[in-house]
Amino acid sequence: MTHPTSPSQSLLHGRLLAFAAILLAALNLRTAVTSLTPLLDVLGQTFGFGTTMTGVLGMLPTAAFALFGVTTPAVARRLGLERTALLAMSLATVGLLLRSMAGGVGSLLFGSVVALAGMGIGNVVVPPLVKRYFANRVGTMSTLYITVLQIGTMMPALLAVPVAQQAGWRVSLGIWALMSLAAALPWLMLSRARPHPDTISAANDPASAPHGKVWKTPLAWGMTLMFGMTSLMTYSMFTWLPRIVVEAGATPAFGGIMVAIFAACGLLPSLTMPALAVRLRNPFPLVLIGFSAFLIAFAGLLYAPMKAPWLWAVLLGIGPSTFPLALTLINLRTRTPAGSAALSGFMQGVGYAFSCLGPFLFGWLHAVSGGWHLPFGFLVLCAVVLLSASWVACKPQKLEDQW
């Protein structure tokens, strides 16, 4: 004789499944980015492309994150959050497989776009799922989510070149599809348990809709430029750091290790910045830490890349500390869920649109000048914009007051 499952047991099972689903999704949100960059030299030789196409491939992640950051809320309203997460992991799986089977630059680009579309959707849909299933544990789940995201950023960079040397670049690019396929399975189970589409947040309720235009506020532009310049510099380095150290005399495998250290050191700011920001009325001093780290790392990579490469990679990891700070400020600078959703959508959509130009312009300036002085000069200018924008974003204020 079978006993019916009690509501409490069903809820516990749903939360455990959601816990696994969220962390597996987080593990897959950057694999398409850092599994590719250490292999760009190999792929360039295989398919016959140079620095311009390398810049385009480096630009794709932020372009996809910008586009799908804007469109995902509408998809989630139609499909429901769980089904949208399932769509994200399915697209990631298909795109990663297509990319590993590429026969030319066109199919390599197409596979990358499909995979990054899935990861761009995942960026947007996972945070509200954390709030749905773990509303009373948002802080703990956010810490776990960021930690796993960083691990998923670091692993492909470390393994890309060694796996390619042992089994070929196709295997090196394709193995990550197994991980995204594994992440799709719990979302399939959760989407079947929740058959009815629902809203992404209270911001979709007309009664709680924003009462002003976000883009008309200095706060929104300050946070958007803060977020955008951080992402621009970060993705420029993800794309070009291997090439910089290889030209300085390092091996491609060492270039992959540098990207992995860069990604791993970003874990510390991600875990500490939110807690520090909450305690400070004006967290601008925290911005100075990231700004200084970026400048020292840029100078080191330009003038003495192989004198202390580990130090430059560590400082590059500390530089994007303004990324978790910007995400934390979304809630610190708003009073309502509607305001928070509006500010988050504008900041991430427009910010990623700005940042997608970074890897392309960095590579173009290198191709034009034949050296690294112009590209790094461009990044220093972006760091100054970041500092100025952060001054506005960090001031004690609320978005709703500017409406």
TL;DR of this structure?
The chain contains 19 helices and no strands. With 403 residues, the protein is mainly alpha-helical.
Describe the fold and architecture.
With 403 residues, the chain is mainly α. It has 2 domains: 12-200, MFS general substrate transporter like domains (Growth Hormone, Chain: A), CATH 1.20.1250; 212-403, Growth Hormone, Chain: A, CATH 1.20.1250.20. The chain has helices at 7-27, 31-34, 40-47, 51-79, 81-100, 105-133, 138-167, 169-174, 176-193, 218-247, 252-265, 267-279, 284-303, 309-318, 322-332, 337-355, 357-369, 373-394, 399-402. 54% of the residues are buried.
**The number of domains:** 2
Largest sheet features = none
Number of helices: 19
Write the element-wise H/E pattern from the N-terminal end onward.
Answer: HHHHHHHHHHHHHHHHHHH
* CATH superfamily membership of the largest domain: MFS general substrate transporter like domains
Low-pLDDT residue spans = 198-210
Return the CATH class of the largest domain.
Answer: Mainly Alpha
Class by SSE composition: mainly alpha
Strand content range: under 5%
Write the layout of secondary structure elements.
Blueprint: H1 7-27, H2 31-34, H3 40-47, H4 51-79, H5 81-100, H6 105-133, H7 138-167, H8 169-174, H9 176-193, H10 218-247, H11 252-265, H12 267-279, H13 284-303, H14 309-318, H15 322-332, H16 337-355, H17 357-369, H18 373-394, H19 399-402
Helix pairs in contact: 1-6, 1-7, 1-9, 4-5, 4-6, 4-10, 4-16, 4-17, 5-6, 5-9, 7-11, 10-11, 10-15, 10-16, 10-17, 10-18, 11-14, 12-15, 13-14, 13-18, 17-18
